[in-house]
Prior knowledge:
Elements: H1 19-29, H2 36-47, H3 52-67, H4 70-92, H5 99-121, H6 131-156, H7 165-184, H8 192-215, H9 224-240, H10 246-274, H11 290-302, H12 306-322
Helix pairs in contact: 1-2, 1-3, 4-5, 5-6, 5-7, 6-7, 6-8, 6-10, 7-12, 8-9, 8-10, 9-10, 10-11, 10-12
Amino acid sequence: MSDSPSTQALPAGAARPDAAARLLAGAVRLLPPGRRDWGAAMRAELDALTEPDERRRFAIGCVAAVGSRPAVWRRIGYALLPAAVVAYVLLWSASIDWAPRRWGVVAFAAVLAVVAELGVVGPLGPVARGGAARFTRACGYLLVGVLAVEVDFAIAHKDNNDLAGVPVLSTVLAVYLAATLAVTRRRAEATSRSLLIGLAAGTTAAAAWVVAVVLAPPIPPGPGFATAIVGAGMAAAVLLVPRRTPMTALRAALIAGTTAALLIFNAVVLLGSFGPAELIPSLAPHALTPADQLANSRIELVDPYLWLLLLGCLVAVAQWVAARAPASPAEPTSATPTSAVATPPANTTTHEPT
Length: 354
């Protein structure tokens, strides 16, 4: 049985990896996947050294070399960013008097931070090399992040002690984020075409909903019209993908569904909070004054659209599952550079047997 690079050729009398081996192993983990062979070479060279001082000097030099790579510092920054966000929320929420509300706000942010961390150093990462995957992941972070800020702000300023929606919303948004990370990770089978078509179709569908409600106010009091728009966006994504790649079409449709659902729900929250009065349906006719009717209707408008958010969450689960299915051999995945696709030699002569 062969030993691993971190345990073979250790100094005499050492039963476990020494400090130099552990130091170098930790530094190698920070290297991007494309430079892991360099890290393995450094560890193999360390294993060939037997003197403790020589091993220590070599390990320190390797750590300095690893630390000189900009990609390593980017990786460290990405890994620390979710923790920094939670730390900021912890400080920002210090002014909340009721402890359960404050820790509900912090827990909500912490759940999403854990999922984001899994996309950097966990099973949902790293992001694929293609530009389409990076752009899709950035859009997912933006959409979920904006909605998370809105939800955390709403929880912090609730005028009652009902916190039952905190675990539900944190789970729903965590599923959305995890699905985006899963479909854009390096081991995913999604193609660049499915990612971009899905984003475009979902964004177009959400824009069509916004245009429709602005030109023909008020905003519908229920999610029926929005659900139909989401379905139309998913269908459009399927039509835009060549028929010969059914899995690409499925993934594009699912990405369009999650994108449209998140965008429309965000639009409802923003328009319901800051939109002109003519966009707000009358949902509280028994309020004492017109101002009270408008204020209460703004609050009540968002609740029915939580069903749209839940529907999009189910689509996100399907997107997560579809990210693991084999890709069509007709085109490379988002993790495969175009230059890596095999092409036949230019001047190949075929010899037939005589």
